[in-house]
Structure formats: C-alpha cells, structure tokens
Amino acid sequence: MDLTILSVISTFIECCSSDLQEGDIGIVEKIIWIFKRLMRRDESIMKFIMPPLMQLFYSAPQSLYSSESNRVGEKLIYEIILQMNSEDEKTRIMACTFLLLLLQHNFREEQNLHSMKTKITVCVAKIVGDYNYQDISKLCESLEGLSESCREQNDDNPFHDHMLDTLEHVSTLISDAQRIEEHSHNKEILVELYYSISVSLLNSPVLRVTWIDNLATLHKSEGNFLESAQCKMHIASLFIQYLKWKNKLTRLPSNFGDFESVSPNMAMEPKLEFYDTVSAEQWTVKELVTKLKDAIGLFIKGNQYELAVRVHTLLNNIYEHEKSYEAMMTNLMDNHALCASLIDKKNPVERYEIQYYRVKFYGVNFPEIHEKGYIYYRVHSNLAKMKDYIQSSLQEKYGDIVEMLLSNEEHLDIDGLDKEKIYVQITGVIVYVPPEEADTRVGSFEQNFNINKFAFETVFNPDGGKVQEDELARQYKKKLIFVTSQSFPYITTRVPLIDEYTVILSPIENAIEVITRQTSKIRAEVSHVPTRINQLQQAIQGSVVPMVNPGPLRICEIFLDRDKIRSGEYDKKDVRQLAHTFDTFLKFCGVAIRLNSIKMEPKHIKFHEMVENSMADLSEIIEKKIQEALDCT
Question: Alpha-carbon distance 174 to 194, whole Å?
C-alpha cells in the first residue's frame, strides 16, 4: 500500500512539475506531510521515499528554500534528521545521503548554506526539546560520519568548507544536548542549561527562541506553569524587538517589549543582535499574538490571574496599533470573563500557597556546587518535601555522600566538614518587604510579584539567656536578609543569591513590625474581592479579641507606657512610629468590622456582637495609651 502511494506521488510530481515550479507551496507541504507519515510508520521505507523526494527537490526548489516556505523546508529537514537518529543503520545511511544531496543542491542554488545552517540547527534544537533529552547517540554518529566524509575530500571545494562549518555548529548544539542528558536528574540545573544555551545564541535569534520555547515546554511538563508563561513572554519580547527592527509596531512605546507589569526581569535580559543576514520571517505580529495568548493560558493554569489580565491589556495595545478592532473586541470579552471569575462570590478563585526556601551547598571536593546558594520557589510544599526533593536529586548524581542540614546557623564551619561529602543547608524563608513598601504590598499577589529579598527571622536575648514568649520587652529580632540576582517570578524555579546582610530589631522595633504585619493581614482581607467572610472573621478575631491574641494589647501596655517613655527606655522616634502604627491598626480593624456587618449571615450575629464589644474595649485602651505616649514625645 505504501509503495503504491509513493508511486502515485512520483507520477504526480512528474506530470505536474510545471505547477510545482511555479511555487505552489500548499501542494509541496501536503506531499511532505505524506512522506512524514510514511517515515514515522515504517523507517525501512526510507529507501523508497528517496526517488520521489529527489524528484520534488529538482521540480520545486523554490518551495523548499525560499523565505516564504521556511516552515515547509524545516518540516522536511526535521523528519530527515529524526531518521538520522534511527536504530536501523540502513535508515541512517539513507537519511545522511539525502541530507547531503539536499545541502549540495541548496549550495548550487544559493552559493552558501546560511539558510540551511539555520534550518538544520533549529530542527536539532527542536528534536532535543521534543524528545526530552532522550538518547541521541545515533544522531551524533551520523553527523560525525558526514563530517569525516567532508574531511576526507581534502580539496578546495567551497561546499565542503560550508558543510563542515554547518556540521560543527550542529555538533556544538549536540554537545549542549549531551550536557542536558547528563543533568536530566536535576530539573533546576536542566532549566538553567536551557536558558544558558539560549543566551549563548545571541547572534542566532531563531535558535535562541527555539531553546526558550523548549524551556517553556519543559516547565509545562513539570507543572511549572508560571515559569512556562514567563518563557512565552520572553519570546514575545524578542518578537517585538525584531518587528520594530523591521519598522513594524513603530507606534508602540520604545519600552513596550520590556513587559514590566508582567515580567519584572525582562529589561535586564540580553537584547537581540541584529545584522543584515538575520532572517526570522515567521516572527510576525500574528505569531506575537499567539505567544501572548499562550502566556495568558499558562498564567491562568498557574493561578496568576492578575498577570493574565495584564497580558490581555498588552494585547489590546497591539490590536489598537494594528487597527484589529474585531480581535480587540474578542480580547476585551475574554478579559471581562477573566475579571468576572476573579470577583465571583459563588465560585471564588482558589489561590496557591507559595513557599520559598534558601538552599546552600557545601562540598570542598565538588567545586561546581561548593558554597553556592539559591532561593527556591515552590507551591503547595513544605520543608520536609523540599528536603526530600533536594536530597534525591543530588543522590542520583553523587550517591550516598549527601547530608541534609536543617540548620538555622548563618554559616557552617567548612574546615570541620568531611571533604568527601556534600552538605546541604536548607531553611524556609519569607518574603522581605521593606517598611517603605508595606503600604503597596498588601495582598498575596503584590507580596509575591517582583521580589528579590527574603528573610529568615529569629528572636534572641542579647544577654544570651533563653527568650520567653511573653517577655516582649526583651525580645530582639534578628533578620538575615537574602538578596537574589533576579526577581520572582522568573523563567527558572530557583534564583542565585548575590548578597546577604543582617538587620537587628530592638524590642520596640520588633513590636512595630508585629502590629504592621497584623494590619497587613486585615488590609488584605478588606481589599479582597470578593470578600472571603471566613478569612475576614479570622483576621478580625486574631486582632481584637484578647483571649485569642493578647499581642496588640500587651504591646501597647509595654511600649506605650508613660513612665518608661519618660525615663528614656525607648527612643522617642520609635514611640511615635508605634503610636502611628497602632492608629492605622485600629482604623483597619474598624473597617473590617463594618465590612463584616454588611457581608455576614444571620448565623454570624453573635460573633459580630462579640468582636464589636472587644473592639470598643481595645480602642479605648489603645487610644488612651497613644495619646499619653505622644504627650511624652
């Protein structure tokens, strides 16, 4: 049956050669699709496909090499290179022969292999991504065989020089692929390899995008939808740079492709390097829109609805620029539906719980990881799960020499470590919000977007004694602040640490932070749309009911005490700051209680009456203390 199909195709090409010569890309694409199906079904048919394939090339070369038919040629080359990785030696030889004939024919047509070099390397990159770093040793053998054949010619034929240059370029790509296979056990290293390879291809824009797209696919397969979406935004940014270089999208702002509202690190990413031979005709406005739509879908899967809304806004800017008002209308409707889901009271959006971990590696005899530290981003995780993940990843490569240290010590005594072992220090950390940003980082989204500082906190007594929980007047707080090279969210799930420093809070400064955080919890619930009545009531109860949380009242009694302030025990600036913080705390507690009175059901009446009474007593005491404290400063 397959041979009959090939015979019919051969007859068709012979009879319709004039139509094919006129460049009917659609017909050529359909023929290649049939070849692809036959090769995927039975590798041994390769020798029978060769004659009609050569017929096609000589009948319609422009349908395979012209810029307008770029994707047609790539599809065929992809399938040929795939056959070069076959377990069957005869199939590999036939595929290599065909690729060589194809390159020779292309060289006669164009006197160079620039376009074919790009097509081949793009296809190899796609194969590495599509086949998820599986064994490509046979492909390596095939390429080395072609290189050896060229070297043996030992003549002045310029084709051989171009051919060797192309194969060396592809060999570099294969080497990268082998590195990927070597580190397949460690997803973080794998992701970083994909990214570093893409950055190394600054002068090959198409290849760079191919690797970033491969990274997006890898993230998606691992369920890292947020990182996959950031990869799509990265690609969209490169598309915009190219389109502007081609004098398209010229009316958009110069920094439009930075996507600051969605991708906080984009402005720091390497820009495209343009030169006369750069060609990426498939990078159209239509493809740009497709990438942004892909990002929207991934942001939604990743529970980042706010970022999806922002990408819809970016799409509107493009549609307006292109005067695509029908597409803009559809986009606005999709955005409207997304916003409606965000405020749907009956089916509220479920938010992922985000955790961050500081991980540092020690291994004197393992310089590739020794003293390197990272912040890891995870959802729905905990310290035990993270420990097991890191340990299993390392043990796959290094064996049983890995020891996990759930230590809170800032630094380890490296001299006391076994040089033949690898030690991993892992600690849960929280997002560090500087005081000046507290008013703008209220909700969960704001507290987890564009962040590069994290903290590990401990309370201590400077005298060295044990700190009692109720001894607020003696509780100092030590904050170890970790700074990362890039902000989250990023296209990787871990980011290197570049700095760390310590902040010491006095007891009254610690008290200010405690009240500020409690106020932030209340503000987050008050501003949440739709109102989450259970979480709102929990925040109210934890703030104004003394039997649940005596903190605010106890802090007020200790640090706003008139006699202690007059004696100079506390800095007057800190006292004024604490008084202001308490004033803000009371205001938002009042707002929260009023909101509860509007949103509550009849079954909540007793609760509401209880918190109203508690609020009245709390306000009376704190307001009096605030006034006394301010009178003393």
Answer: 13
Which pLDDT does position 142 carry in this prediction?
86
The number of beta carbons lying within 10 Å of the beta carbon of residue 76 is 24
Tell me if residue 456 falls in helix, strand or coil: strand
Contact 357, 428 (CB under 8 A): yes
Q: Cα dist. 262→222, 259, 312, 529, 557 in Å? A: 22, 5, 11, 21, 45
343 vs 189, 305, 309, 312, CA distance in Å? 39, 11, 13, 17
Give CA–CA dist 494/501, Å, rounded: 20
Strands 494-505 and 476-488 turn out to be antiparallel
Residue 21 has a pLDDT of 59
Residues whose CB falls within 8 Å of the CB of residue 260, separated by 6 or more in sequence, listed in order: 266, 267
**Residue 67: per-residue pLDDT:** 47
* Terminal Cα-to-Cα distance of the chain (whole angstroms): 97
Note the Cα 553 to chain centre separation in Å: 43
- In order, the DSSP letters of 135-190 are --HHHHHHHHHHHHHHHHH-S--HHHHHHHHHHHHHHHHHHHHHHHHHTTT-HHHH
- H or E stretch covering 125: helix 114-130
Long-range contacts of 140-149 (CB under 8 A, 24+ apart): 140/174, 140/178, 141/92, 142/84, 142/85, 142/92, 142/95, 142/96, 143/84, 143/167, 143/170, 143/171, 143/174, 144/171, 145/96, 146/96, 146/99, 146/100, 147/171, 149/100
Concatenated DSSP letters of 538-587? HHHHHHH-TTT--HHHHHHHHHT-HHHHHTT-S-HHHHHHHHHHHHHHHH
The answer to whether residues 310 and 261 touch, using CB atoms and an 8 Å cutoff, is yes
Residue 37: closest CA among 27, 25, 45, 28: 45
Q: Which residue type does 339 have?
A: C
**CA atoms in the 13 A half-sphere facing the CB of 560:** 27
Q: Are 287 and 235 in contact (CB under 8 A)?
A: no
Rg (C-alpha) for the chain, rounded Å, is 32
Coil vs helix vs strand at 608: helix
Residue appearing with tokens 């902000």? 487
CB atoms inside a 10 Å sphere around CB 572: 13
Amino acid symbol at 12: F
Task: Specify the DSSP class assigned to residue 375.
Answer: E
Question: What distance in Å separates the CA atoms of residue 571 and residue 511, rounded to the nearest whole number?
Answer: 13
Please provide the size of the chain in residues. Answer: 633
- Residue 145 CA to residue 151 CA, distance in Å, equals 10
Label residues 398-425 b or e (16+ Cβ within 10 Å = b).
eeeebebbeeeeeeeeeeebeeebbbbb
Return the residue matching tokens 């020089």: 161
Six token digits for residue 72: 């047609």
Task: Output the six-digit token pair for 45.
Answer: 């048919």
As averages over each run of 10 residues, the pLDDT of the chain (633 residues) reads 77 70 67 76 73 72 54 75 83 83 76 73 73 69 83 73 79 74 82 88 81 93 95 94 85 83 92 63 88 97 94 94 93 94 75 90 89 93 91 87 72 78 93 85 87 93 71 87 96 96 94 92 88 91 74 89 89 93 95 94 92 93 92 83
Integer Cα distance of 341 and 513 in angstroms = 34
Planar angle of CA 505, 510, 511, nearest 5 degrees: 155
Q: Note the pTM of the prediction, 2 decimals.
A: 0.76
